[in-house]
Write a structure and sequence with these properties.
Layout lengths: L3 H11 L13 E2 L2 E2 L2 E2 L2 E2 H8 L5 H5 L3 H13 L10 H14 L4 H12 L13 H9 L2 H22 L4 H12 L6
Antiparallel strand pairs: 1-2, 3-4
Helix pairs in contact: 1-5, 4-5, 5-8, 6-8, 8-9
Length: 183
């Protein structure tokens, strides 16, 4: 099975320290600019703790807190502990870290298309253990490739809709390119 510990180590390699970029929507809660640290946005913090963070809460976020949030908000929602292929699990993990749990419906759609069956119900609800079993049975390399393609297209749509996001595009693409399928 895929390992959360490996996935989170790779996530920390890609995530930087504190930033408070006003053009990053995830840095806001209730219209207040707060920030992101260790890859945990103000919105991610809020979703996990059910409490609006202060700038200091985000600035002082520990590695252990970040791990707990990554596990609860993202890894568990993709049923990462039940996905067999590490590279598939890590890309699914990054899929929802980067755009939130609303992306789960797209992961399910891609899995259905790769599997040639409409097995997974398209909704934003977490991927279940049974969903993970279906995902494990489909062509893993093709599923990984289709998720990457979808993400690249998403980035282009985001920039087309909001040209101010162009400054993030190269970084998003570079991070996505680090995800290489391994059997």
């Amino acid at each position: 099975m895929a390992s959360f510990d490996k996935a989170v180590i790779n996530t920390f390699k890609a995530e930087g320290g504190f930033q408070q970029d006003a053009s990053d929507n995830a840095n806001y809660v209730n219209g207040v600019l707060i920030g992101t640290n260790r890859g945990i946005s103000a919105q991610g913090y809020y979703a996990y703790y059910k409490k609006v963070p202060t700038v200091n809460d985000i600035k002082n976020l520990t590695v252990e807190q970040a791990k707990q949030i990554f596990k609860g908000n993202y890894w568990d929602k993709i049923a990462g502990d039940f996905i067999v292929n590490q590279s598939v699990a890590e890309l699914m993990f990054q899929f929802v870290i980067g755009s939130g749990s609303s992306q789960i419906s797209y992961i399910k759609d891609i899995a259905n298309k790769v599997g040639g069956k409409s097995v997974l119900v398209l909704n934003d609800l977490p991927i279940t253990k049974m969903d993970a079993f279906f995902i494990n049975e489909i062509n893993q390399e093709l599923f990984h490739a289709r998720m990457k393609e979808w993400r690249f297209e998403l980035y282009d749509r985001i920039v087309a809709k909001n040209p101010a996001k162009q400054k993030f595009l190269k970084g998003w693409q570079n991070r996505l390119n680090t995800h290489v399928y391994k059997p």
